[in-house]
From TrEMBL:
The lineage of its organism: Bacteria, Pseudomonadati, Pseudomonadota, Gammaproteobacteria, Pseudomonadales. Coiled coil: none annotated. Residues 9-178 form the Thioredoxin domain. Keywords: Oxidoreductase, Peroxidase, Signal. It comes from Pseudomonas fluvialis. This is Glutathione peroxidase. Belongs to the glutathione peroxidase family. One of its GO terms (molecular function) is peroxidase activity.
Length: 181
């Protein structure tokens, strides 16, 4: 009975309630790019293999969006989710969400989930990226890639130099897909 009362009280405060089995990596919500909607990370990604990328619209690696979309299309039937997180930490993100959205959706045809611009490095990093850094390493530049298994554990991380069609990245994705929830 006490647990029910606590849940009622928390819901009345409009605080998100996370399932006990939700991994630390997925505890939280992020606003979608150019939307009033939010992505509840636990609801959307718990139990699924995930590829997380910190992105920037005006970076030399921005052309990787095309390959990341190809990965999304190749692996989505096997359950892989892809999450792009724009960041201006390296001073290469567009000044507004509209321009970011045009570059991602219009120029590169991205259909995977994209968030609004976030901080991904240092003490001010969002919880998702603090946990990614704790499990592997913080991004040192744009287009760092993190492959996460079904338990919310980083399988492997990859630098910006790793192209989306890299065979080691594909092997890590295969390992994440094969993992048990």
């Amino acid at each position: 009975m006490k647990k029910s009362l606590l849940l009622v009280l928390l819901s009345s405060l409009a605080l998100p309630v996370f399932a006990a089995d939700c991994p630390a990596l997925l505890q939280g919500e992020l606003p979608k790019l150019r939307s009033k909607e939010v992505i509840n990370l636990c609801e959307q990604y718990a139990g699924k293999p995930l590829l997380v990328i910190n992105t920037a619209s005006h970076c030399g690696f921005t052309k990787q969006f095309k390959g990341l979309e190809a990965l999304h299309q190749k692996y989505k039937a096997q359950g892989l989710e892809v999450l792009g997180v724009p960041s201006d930490d390296f001073k290469q993100e567009a000044d507004n969400a509209e321009e970011t959205a045009t570059i991602c959706y219009g120029n590169y045809g991205v259909t995977f989930a994209m968030t609004a611009t976030q901080v991904v490095t240092g003490d001010s990093a969002i919880p998702l990226f603090r946990e990614l850094a704790a499990q592997s390493s913080a991004p040192r530049w744009n287009f760092y890639k993190y492959v996460v298994d079904r338990q919310g554990k980083v399988v492997e991380s990859f630098s910006s130099l790793t192209e989306p069609d890299d065979e080691d990245l594909a092997a890590a994705i295969d390992k994440a897909i094969a993992s048990k929830p």
